[in-house]
Every structure is written in structure tokens, then in C-alpha cells.
Amino acid sequence: MSKASVFYDKFERHSHGEGLKGHATHYCPGCGHGLAHKYLAEAIDELGIQDRTVAISPVGCSVFLYYYFDVGNSQAAHGRAPVVALGHKFANPESVVISYQGDGDLASIGLAETIATAQLGAPITVIFINNAIYGMTGGQMAPTTLMGQSSSTSPAGRNEYNGQPMKMAEIIAGLDGPVYVERVALFDAKQRIKAKKAIQKAIKLQVEGRGYSFIEVLAECPTHLKMDPEATAKWVKECMEPVYPLGVKKDITVEPWFKRNPPCFKGEKLLSLAGATSEHSDRFCQGFPTHLDAQDISLKLAGSGGDGAQTAAMLIARAAISEGFDATHIPSYGPESRGGTSYADVHVAKDEVLNPGSPDPQVLIAFNTPSLVKFGPTVRKGGFVIYDSSVVTEAPVLDPSIKVFPVPFTGIATDLGKAVVKNIVALGALQAATGIFPKDTLLTAIRVALKDKCALIPLNEEAFAWGIKSVEALDK
Amino acid sequence: MALKERPKPFLLPEYCKGCGRCLDACAKDCITLSDQINPLTGLVPVELDLANCNACGLCMDACPEPYGLRPAHEGEIQDFELEDPAKLFGVKPSDAPEPIDLPSEVLPLPRTEPLVIKGTYASALGALLAGCRHVYGYPITPSTEGAELMAKFLPKLDGTFIQAVSEVATVNMMYGTAGAGLPTMTFTSSPGFSLMLEGVSYMIGAELPGVFVDVMRGGPGLGNIAPEQSDIKLACHGLGHGNTHAITLAPATPQEMLDLTILAFELSFKYRNPVILLGDGYLGQMTGKVQLPETMIKPGIPKWAVYGDAMHRKNVITSIFLTETDLEAHNVHLNAKYEAMKVEARSESFLCDDAEVVLIACNTPARTAKGAVQDLRNQGVKAGLFRPITLWPFPVEELKKAIHGTQRIVVVEASAGQLEDEVRLALSKAGVRQFPEIESVRRMGGILPQQSEIMTRVLGQKEVLA
Ligand SMILES: Cc1ncc(C[n+]2csc(CCOP(=O)(O)OP(=O)(O)O)c2C)c(N)n1
Ligand code: SF4
Ligand code: SF4
Ligand code: SF4
Known about the structure:
The complex is a heterodimer.
Chain A: H1 32-47, E1 53-57, E2 72-75, H2 81-91, E3 96-102, H3 103-109, H4 111-120, E4 125-130, H5 168-173, E5 180-185, H6 189-207, E6 213-218, H7 222-225, H8 229-243, E7 247-251, H9 267-274, E8 296-304, H10 309-322, E9 326-331, E10 341-349, E11 363-366, H11 369-375, E12 384-388, E13 403-407, H12 409-415, H13 422-434, H14 439-449, H15 457-475
Parallel strand pairs in A: 1-2, 1-3, 3-4, 4-6, 5-6, 8-11, 11-12, 12-13
Antiparallel strand pairs in A: 5-7, 8-10, 9-10
Helix pairs in contact in A: 1-6, 3-4, 10-13, 10-14, 12-13, 13-15
Chain B: H1 2-5, E1 9-10, H2 21-25, E2 31-33, E3 46-48, H3 58-62, E4 70-71, H4 74-82, E5 105-108, E6 115-118, H5 119-129, E7 134-137, H6 144-153, E8 160-163, H7 167-179, E9 184-188, H8 190-206, E10 210-216, H9 232-237, E11 247-249, H10 254-271, E12 274-280, H11 281-285, E13 287-290, E14 295-298, E15 316-317, H12 324-340, E16 347-350, E17 357-360, H13 363-378, E18 383-388, E19 390-392, H14 396-403, E20 408-413, H15 418-429, E21 438-442, H16 451-459
Parallel strand pairs in B: 7-8, 7-9, 9-10, 10-12, 11-12, 17-18, 17-20, 20-21
Antiparallel strand pairs in B: 1-4, 2-3, 5-14, 6-13, 11-19, 16-18
Bound molecules: thiamine diphosphate and iron/sulfur cluster (3 copies).
One iron/sulfur cluster (SF4) binds at residues 27-28, 31, 33, 61, 131, 135, 221-224 of chain A.
């Protein structure tokens, strides 16, 4: 009841706090915002949380909340206060964050943020000032404007074309996230005492870490309701209250849940999550495979989703990088990745991959007929085409300089009992056909990739060996 | 006795707006509206006649003015009669301490073997190494893997990943965390970035740091999810309403996705301004060799933050400057900051020294162009590549050097000329009037310019489309 110490002793931020303005609010005479401010300030005082409080100022008449409160202040865009509040709360879970909003702010432009934040249930406090009209912009219709009530944008009175008034407290109470929802009013001494208590309780619940709470305050806007303050209070009581019944809408007791450890900045932890290691992997290459290209080898792997083209492509890139070369892999893009064809562009470069795309590859590994038909003709002169002879029914005519290796990837893999290893058969064939890397380079990459599924390593090694054998058989 | 301690109300007429809320509150009819207009306020205050007052306090509860009806002590009323109301309460500034910087720490990391990861993952790791533990986002292809990695890693680091209800909510969560002084970021793609621009403008206005990784895709509208350089103009010149700019970085490799993300955090705190990292759909997906740095950051709390503690109680984060002169002064300050950001211009010039034809490209098209330069050189054509790494500020001084003596400029881009416009604007602002006619290789719709198209253009052969 005495001036809360949270109020500045002089409203320095109010037009630089000069003259009378240094001690008077910018609100119109009789405006409900002033009372709500007072009760909020008293609650902060009584709970002893001035240093921890962050008040989020909205857009609307109360945009200048920060003129008055000697707490941390943050001003938000129209309707976005609850998510700004979340940003503050997550940054410092010890802080007490209060989102203070009008009806245009909370129930119109910020409706999505309002509902989603309430449902998230993180402990913040939302104070919702429902004065049934837009104040700051000059008395337009609000989502909470009553049926028949006139405003500057419903001059003949709100009608069905504008929809029904929004009962926010009921909507919020219907969600599972919030712990406490109450609607209060300011029109008589009894209601004011209840309003004070409700605001205090809502903030206390946050201090205890229990959860999200929402206090809707039926407030007076004498200016835009175009009545004197006394008549406005009467109007709120007689016209608003029947549409927006007062009282507790939800009050559940939950255990505090919002205890968070401070974020971790341990280097080892981050590195282990990233899978980074300081251990040198073994190198098997004598040098860059210049017999394929002096600088940069371009490969394409193509098949249907599930053929394992992407995995094989990635293994080639990993193998190259573990040998100290540069490499890139670009998967095919678009709806193909959800089934259908799938292809990968891979480059292996001595120093730096300049262009990671493979429009005219030196090496094509094709897992099916369409891939071979589509990409076969793009292979450079003197290049290599390796394809799955188990499934390819027709091979296009290619430049005679291209070396072609039909290898039954699928047949071999099926004989080994697991069709999925056909891409490893293909890698074996790649090794034998092109000599791109020593066997151990690719085998190491395969073993590293399977380090969490060790049981599968022998099968994959066998598939790789069969790929090599089939190419060698072709040579003879 | 409690009853005796209850004070009666006291009123400074200057602080009474005459709303009358106290009138009804008093059951004893102690309060009446006066009929005198107060000359200072032009309002009609109430008058108190406390003869019947039982000090119930209900009138004070009913007064919406913090300095309106207040509990009185005899002395105060006496004093009031003698004092100028403006000085009555004295100037007692907040007792909150002056905020100070809690500096961030640079922690050493062991040297590790290179990782083989895709661009979005590299960027996510960069953010974690830069000390970011608060990531908000809304899924959109082709940026989603960044958010997915954060959702996986951050809980293990006691950090926060929240999937917001929209991009609008995302940027405003960032606003909150940035307001608290901590590093925060998001992954998005073109349609999502468009939605964030309201918040970006607010962040710039309120001088808040934050990193936006925009993995650009084809537009306009829903377009498609393939790579296009569709947001260059948006990032360089259209960050919401008002006088806005942000440093815009254009990586071209997974390694740069990591390095430039780390740089983005550093710059965003240095200038208290958002920083945009523009990737393209290819770069997000491209896997490559990524070397981690040998340090990481543990962030502190800057002195301007609203952290929610005693040290930072004094602060306010806001983008409102109500009077025209204040807002103009703020904009002058922001412009000075934009000017200062010019030292951050970065670029790469590849074989430009003796080049007769200079290609200009960024992001993935820059790599295709680099491949073309190599091939052209092999064919005896003196080609070079100029690659802006910051699109805003545009590295115009380096560009001037790169095109010095060249006969041809070819801008290679996956857009209808957004990069070319940046080049032209930068040259024009720098007063460069003489430069070769700009030729272009442009693809759109998610098709990137092919090396063969660049070669065709440079070698002047007939158009061969891929
Ligand atoms: C994006 C955006 N749209 C519109 C506005 C204009 N605007 C400012 S205040 C306001 C209405 C506020 O009404 P309410 O939230 O009910 O608060 P009150 O003024 O009644 O306290 C509007 C529409 C804005 N600031 N931002
Ligand atoms: S316009 Fe209405 S809501 Fe705004 S300050 Fe005046 S009375 Fe209050
Ligand atoms: S304290 Fe009670 S009795 Fe005295 S003026 Fe105020 S309302 Fe009336
Ligand atoms: S409630 Fe306060 S502002 Fe209103 S008339 Fe009474 S003293 Fe004056």
C-alpha cells in the first residue's frame, strides 16, 4: 500500500524524468495499468526478488513499463513478450521473469506465442491486462471487445463478422502446461485485494520453480471506453464481468521442476560428443593416386535409396581425409532422398577440392539401370564405370576409352546373406578397378564406421574382398 | 498496537489525476473531488478531509498512481507544505550497482584429427565452440540438421534447445537470451528467415548479438528446397524495417561453415549486432574435411545485459526512442557502428594478380568457379576468382585490386543477379566508374551454375546448358 521500493524514486526514464513527469505515470486518469503496476511492484517487494526480476515490456499503453520498475527490463515486439521471457528464463533460470501484456498484444498478434508458451509450462508469470479495447493505437477493437461494443474499428458495435470475444483465462486454463490461472478485476476494494493476492501468488509459484502462471486482470481504459473513470469501473463490473467471469480457473500443485545445472564448458565433453580424437589414424598411401588425376579425382555413385550409395560415398571421402587428402561428398537432393533415385558426388583432391560437383566424373559406380543410363554417358574419356551386373539389364554404349566393370554387387551380397553389403562389394570393386587407395585405406574406413557394430566387421571385410576378386576375375 | 501504526493517507495534489478511484474506496466519505483545477497539471485533484478517517488504507490501494495517495507521517505533511513538490522525494537514483563486464574465457583444446562432417553440423559445432548453449529453431529444409544436432548435443551440455512455435517465436527467444547477454543462434532457411526479420530489426534496434545461419533455398514463396542464393539482397539490405545492417558471411566449404560461425559469434558480440551466415542448400549438405580449432569460448556476461541479477538491474534492453531527436541520435550511432564494421570485410582472391578474366562468386558457386579457373588456366586462359566472404560489408577494396587490369568480369551466381547488384553497388559507392562490362552466369530454381557453363561463357562458345 505504501509506494513499493521497486518503483523508481523518480521516473528518470519517463521523458528523462523531468518535472511532474518524474513522479506521475503516463497513464490516463483511472487507467487499470497503474493499479496493476502497483500490485506487481508490491509483489516483487514482498517476495524480495527485486534483483532477480526481469520485466518484459510489451507493445501497447504499457510499453513503458520500464519507466517505473527498478528491475532488469527488456522491451519486446508486439505480441512476442512471452517468448522473449522464455529467452531470459532459459538464459538465467534463477531470474524471475514477468511478461506483462495487453489484450491486443496477448490475444491477437501474439496468440501463437501466448498459447505455445503457456503449454510449455516453463515457470514464468504472465500478467494479462484485458481492457476490452486497444489503448495505445486509439480505441480499436480487441479480441476481447464485447459483442455490441463499439470501437473505432467496430463503429456499429462488434458483430458476428468480427467473431466472439476471446476468453483467454479459460483457454489458458484448458492447457496442460500452466499451474495457476486466475481472472481478477480492479473495480472495487474486494476485487483489488484479490488482484493483489493473485499477482503475488503467481510470482511466488515462479520463485518456487513450479511452473507457468497467468493472471488476467479486467482493467479500465476510461479514455477509449469513453466514460469517466467511475463509470468505466462500473462498466467493467456490469458488462465485462458477465462475459469474463472472475475467479481461479486452474490451480494445481506440482513439484518444482525447473532446476537446471549451469551449462557445461568442458572441452573434452564437447570433443567427445563431436567424435573428435587426437589419435592419428594409420596411413597406407604412398602418395596421391596421380595415375587417376594429378590433383583432383571426381566420382559419382548412383542407385536407388537403400542401395547404400551415400554410405559408400561417405566412406570414400573419409578414407581420403584419413590419408591427409581433401575430400567432399554431396548427396543428391530433393524428394529423391525420400525413396527413388539417390546419388552422390565425391571428390578426392591432393590439396583442396575446388569444385565438389561431379557433372563429368572419372569414376561412376552405378547400382541400377537408370543410374547407368543417366550418368554413364557423362563419364570422362579414359574413365571407369563399375556397375551392378546382377540388376543392370541393359548397358548403354559408352566411349571405348572408358573401362567398364560389370560386377554382381547384389548377387555377391545376397550370397553372403546380407543384401545391404552390396555397397561394400562396390567399394572392393572400386579398389581393384582403379587402385584409388590401398586396400587397407578403405578397410580402415569401413572398420571405423562400424566401430559400434563390431560384429558386422568380418561380413563387410568379406564383401570387400569379393568385390576385389570379381574385378580381378574380369581382368583375366 | 497494529491499529495505531496504520497511517492515514496523504496526497500531493500535483500527482493526483483526479480519477476518483479513491472516492468509492472510502467508506467514510473522506475524499471529495475538488472544484479547483491544479495549475501545474491542468487536472482536478481530490481533496482529503481526514477528520473521519480510520486509516483503513483502502483509498491508497485504489490509487493507480505510485506517487498518488500514500501513507503519511505527520512530519511529512508538515514538510510538504514547505517544499517544492518536484524535490520532495529528492533525487535518489536506484541503489543498484554500476554494471561491469564479466569477460569471457578462452579455454584451450587439444589438437584433434580432422572431422569428416557436413556443413550444417560444422556450423553447429562452431556455435558450441563459440560458447553458445542456447539455440532456438523451427524446422526447415535444408537447414534442419543443424537444429537436430543441437537438440542431441545441448541437453548433454546442460544447454537449451527449444523448438519454437514459429520462426517469429524463435527470433524473439533469441532476443530474450541475447538480452540476458548470452550467445544464441538459430538455423533457418529462406522462408523462415523472412519471418524472422521483424525480430532481427528489433535486435539491431536494441543492439543485441545473435547468429542466424540461413541455408538459402529456392524462392520466391515456398519455391523448393534446392540451393539458390535467394537471400543475398534480404541479408545485405532488407533486415526488417528501419535503418538495419548486419555483417553477412558467405562460407564456401564445411570448414568455413565452422570457422565463420565462430567468427560470427565474435563479431556479433564485438558490435552488439546480429550476424548472418548465408549458406546454400548444397553447403548445408556437403560433407568435407573440418579441422577443429585449438580453443573454445566460455562466455561471460557483458555489462549492458539484463541478466536478472543485482549487477545488471540497472539495465534496460529496448529499441524505443520516443522523441525524434533521440531516435535520430540512435540511428547516427548505429550508422557509425555500420561504418566501423567495414574493417571486417573479408575476401579470397584466387589467381587474380595477372587475370584477364575475373570470376566473382560466393558460396558453392564460388567452388564451381574455382574449378573452372583451374581448368581455364590449364587451357592457357588467364582466369581468376574473386570470392567475397563478407557480402556486407562488401570487400570492395580487395575487389578493386582483384579486377585491376582485368578485361572481363563474370559474376557466377545461383540467383537473378543479387550478387551482381552487390558488386555494382559496392563499386559505385567506392567511386569506381571504369570497369569492364559485367557478364554473368546465372541459374535459378535450385540449379547451380555448372563448371561447363562457366567455361562456355568465358571461352565464348555457344551456350551449352546442362
Ligand atoms: C507489428 C505491430 N503491429 C501493430 C502495432 C501497433 N500497435 C501498437 S499498440 C497496439 C495495440 C495494443 O493494444 P493492447 O495490447 O490491448 O494494449 P493497451 O494499449 O490496451 O494497453 C497496436 C496494434 C505494432 N506496434 N506492431
Ligand atoms: S488509453 Fe486506456 S489503456 Fe491506455 S493509458 Fe489511457 S486509459 Fe490506460
Ligand atoms: S484511509 Fe480509509 S478512511 Fe481514511 S481516507 Fe482512506 S479510505 Fe477513507
Ligand atoms: S485515486 Fe489517486 S489519482 Fe485518483 S483521484 Fe484519488 S488520489 Fe487522485
